[in-house]
Known about the structure:
- Two copies of one chain form a homodimer.
- In chain A, strand 4 (82-88) and strand 5 (93-98) form a beta hairpin.
- Chain A contains twelve helices and 25 strands.
- In chain A, the strands form seven sheets. In chain A, strands 3-2-1-7-18 form a five-stranded parallel beta sheet.
- Chain A is globular.
- Chain A is α/β, with parallel strands linked by helices.
- At the A-B interface, helix 8, strand 21, strand 22 and helix 10 of A face helix 8, strand 21, strand 22 and helix 10 of B.
Amino acid sequence: MAQRLIVVGGDAAGMAAASQARRRRGRADLEIVAFERGHFTSYSACGIPYWISGVVPGRDQLIARDPATFRESFDVDVRLRHEVTGIDLDRREVVARDLDGDREVREGFDTLVYAAGAVPVTPSFARTDAMGVFGMQTLDDGEALRDWLESEPRPRHAVVVGGGYIGVEMAEALIQRGLVVTLVERADQPMSTVDADMAELVAEAMRGVGITIRTGLAVTGLQERDGRVTAVVTAEGPIPADVVVLGLGVRPNTALAEAAGLPLGPTGGIRVDRRMRVPGMPDVWAAGDCVESLHRVSGMPVHVPLGTHANKQGRIAGINIGGGYATFPGVIGTAVTKVCDLEVGRTGLRERDATAAGFEFVSVVAESTSRAGYYPGARPMTVKLIAERTSGRLLGAQIVGRSEAAKRIDTLAVALWNGMTVDEMTALDLGYAPPYAPVWDPVLVAARKAVDALSATTNRR
Amino acid sequence: MAQRLIVVGGDAAGMAAASQARRRRGRADLEIVAFERGHFTSYSACGIPYWISGVVPGRDQLIARDPATFRESFDVDVRLRHEVTGIDLDRREVVARDLDGDREVREGFDTLVYAAGAVPVTPSFARTDAMGVFGMQTLDDGEALRDWLESEPRPRHAVVVGGGYIGVEMAEALIQRGLVVTLVERADQPMSTVDADMAELVAEAMRGVGITIRTGLAVTGLQERDGRVTAVVTAEGPIPADVVVLGLGVRPNTALAEAAGLPLGPTGGIRVDRRMRVPGMPDVWAAGDCVESLHRVSGMPVHVPLGTHANKQGRIAGINIGGGYATFPGVIGTAVTKVCDLEVGRTGLRERDATAAGFEFVSVVAESTSRAGYYPGARPMTVKLIAERTSGRLLGAQIVGRSEAAKRIDTLAVALWNGMTVDEMTALDLGYAPPYAPVWDPVLVAARKAVDALSATTNRR
């Protein structure tokens, strides 16, 4: 008789697990049921800002694979609008609520994949019935915001709360739609995923397109009239807003997991072993934005909610469930983003992370160009490297540039992944041709500068 | 009393050596004299095709640093138009001819850097006085071609002999200038730096812009009238040409070195140790297009004439001459080029190289896109990976795409440099955001496909 796999959460991690398990085990061997609270499977949450701005014209373009594909090609029983409300590990049973039929279903399982994703951080002021306040995590969120932006009276003033990736991208999307946009960030810099010096370059570009940035300022409440938001409240007074977008980040969605006794780590994410198994829980797996991962540089657990990890982790869980062997070796914090006319990339540790992890380091910032200086379209690029004292090992890197910049972080990410020193990196055989790089690629220029900085440090010690 | 360093050849390698030595040793300690046959120091030969096409407007833009800079900022006695005609290692003396003054000069040295570069491979038929036949290695070559293209009667039919980087780039430059262009290549594919399947994509793009490609065909002679070339001769008949550009590659310029007793390796390049010293020759160094390098994957010596290596090697020689310590760990054959609307990247071994080195391998070709499929401007990209059987270690990679493709080879180059297996590579933490990559980057898609191919091979053995 077939065993049964239940997948909790039908987005990237869950569906990657389901399809990889299916590749290795046929229907007669493994029945697969996936419960998904929303209306969609496997969509690109990262694409939502581009749909809001109009750069991506339609919502359905963000859907990587629809439920029908999973049903037909992978023989996965996808149950949309089914919210799992309980997991009983002793009885090996999942309880779900059919949100449309308003009835409860119970399904037994042999194997469980917990892939419930993340939930937005929502401050108490935002738990309001006032119209015009939006999270930005699901396609439904995006749809609601788009409808609001097109409703009458037409919203004109937007406040984005939080200056992380989503906040920054949403601020740009809203200014592209012609709104007056203020970004409010509690910390003293937007884009806290990079160091302050690099973030300042990003802030300049945002101001350049007309976004007002207010840092060191917390939103403490909302003002509303007739059930519609009219302003956000701050210690420096209210900021008018007829649309408020929350970009305060997400936390692992672990309520059900915790209730079922799954172990959480220090980041609040579910703990998993290298194969994405939940330790001490036979045949229970977890993957995606609800788990914590090992940071390979700091050696500490981190919570990095990102589609690329969710896909990889889901795939690995699925391979293992399917009887194969695969492990997830951890993350190094690589991320890229487009901000106005800037490309931003980062990998490894920021200065503050390196300090927190106990490293002593030098950091250097090198200016260069994307192409040979004489080749048309060459644009400036700033590369920052952080290297451990004494060992010279690369600990982190950040890039800000105007074109052909963001994905250069991958070169640094692979160097960092392999524990290279900046001295070793100066010899790297990277592609050179005038349309693509100066004869010393910006990555090499930065590595050389880091070597010089290390040697100055060594001479002083 | 100051010692004296003589540099033979004032291009990338020689001048990098001179300036690095100067950084570490002042004038009172080290006098530096550099002899250069041509009119220029440190220019970008790789940029010449873009100057011919008009993409780069002026010749002087290709000059990275002019002689005055070296004289003033680095206190290097640069002697242009001085052709070194002899090196006497016993007497520690260099003999040079001042080409303009037509007189001979002799200078003693304590330390010698031989950086004479490479010379074009010139078949006997091309040793002609006929006008309209051009090599393409120096700025003088470029100047002569540009003058010819603008002379009357205006040349209309161009034949490019040889389908390597320079040949392909020159064919494109000439078609951009409105000529009728035929590329003749003796081998059965143009762009022999990549495997035939990838080269076919390049050939298609070239045909797409109107370049006629004739492969498997050798040029055996020239026809001329009134001292002007009129056609190239082939076994399949003459091809009309009022301009012929030779792109048959280069070989190490070692005549003087050989005469002086410097050891040459199997590639014909000068042998050097890890610090760029010539073995057995005290205080004699060599760098750049005249030396051979270790290929880190095959373990064999190779001759890779490329500005990026010349700069690195010159820098390393200079650091060591200056009393520092640096080594050149070899090359892996990374190269990128723009061909019509294609970007081409390669690193490591081609299939034929892998076979020649004794490897058994699998190779896979994966299709993907440069950005998230739904993001505007996403373009197709083809990634080929070659991985060793059993170990799964990456041996080589090739990329052809329409945008944001070429420099992705750097990611693969760093993975290859570090001896990663394709299985390890599937977990790499690469940058993901819709404007820059699909959630599975093309590099990861290809690595996954290689893992599958390896596992199929393993199961069969």
